Amino acid sequence: MRKMKWSLTSVCLFLALIVLAAGSVIPQAAAAEEKFKVAFIYVGAVGDAGWTYAHDLGRKFLEKQIPNVETSYVESVPEGADSERVLAELAEKGNKVIFATSFGYMDPVQKVAARYPNVVFMHCSGFKTSKNAGTYFGRDYQGRYLSGIVAGKYTKKNLIGYVAAYPIPEVIRGINSFTLGVQSVNPKVKVKVVWTNTWYDPTAEKEAAKSLLNAGADLIAMHQDTPAAMQAAQEKGAYGISYDSDMRSFAPKAVLTGPVWNWGPYYVKTVKSVMDGTWKSGQYWGGLSSGIIDIGPYGSMVSESVKKLVAAKRNVLMKDEGYVFAGPIKDQSGKIKVAKGKRLTDAEMLSIDWFVQGVEGNIPK
């Protein structure tokens, strides 16, 4: 029987081969475990029970649907220089996709995107795009219109108060579509607007709602990030139309319903497209048919007849995205802004700067 003889050189060579083999396996295992990093930047706190809360639900949904995705977020980031700094920090941390979830992040997104061409930036509700920065939003006016139908059926004084954040097209469009929904079932109603000039300030929101209730409104609608306006309505024995998420638990005796956001499926679709290399910059504006926007659950006080009325109109909007802003539509002065047989285009809706007839209040310049 032949005996195998090992020289010192042979042993060293054998050990080296083992190390090389092991070395080739370890990086592959690490690569398999490497997470695809996605970040979110929020203007409010995740506990606001409204706008930011809804986006954060979408973030959590994303992580559950794509296990290889690791998400992070930075909350309560002011719009402006602070947001530019945070966006850059998130890009430096290796995030491949960054979702900026407030209108005021628009210019900072463009600046930072230019510095990080290999990162995809998605800006919510804005209108500026670049090669690696797109925009996304939902046709909020559809949910607003449907909630207006409910409000029109439940006001007795024919005066509805509207607590509004900033005089930007997004908010103006919401006020107009809500008012058109109200007037579709109750043409006598007026919608009175008070501006807070803040997205997240529970105290200011509540005080604005109180001022409207003291002025005679018996129902409060809102474009704010917290349930404070709804709580003011309940304290006064009035009804409310909430926004962003289901706010019934915060004011169960007041909240009739309200438009709600479902960002999760869109976040999943977008991140998957980046991961598989099919993402392209553009402007996304999905409606009821996409599921990104809808009317939320109803309060116990809403009748079946009103629910059926809304359901019927919802079916119309599912098939006709331009229905809400179909003419004839007059502005506050009585001037025809949309002629009979005409409709506002997407570009006109996204830049709207006038109130429809029936709205009381001014749009600050």
From TrEMBL:
Superkingdom as given in the UniProt entry: Bacteria
Keyword Signal: yes
Domain ABC transporter substrate-binding protein PnrA-like: 37-313
GO cellular component: plasma membrane
Signal peptide: 1-21
Alphabetized UniProt keyword annotations: Signal
A Pfam family hit: Bmp
CDD domains in alphabetical order: PBP1_BMP-like
Name assigned to this protein: Nucleoside-binding protein
Organism: Hydrogenispora ethanolica
Organism lineage string: Bacteria, Bacillati, Bacillota, Hydrogenispora
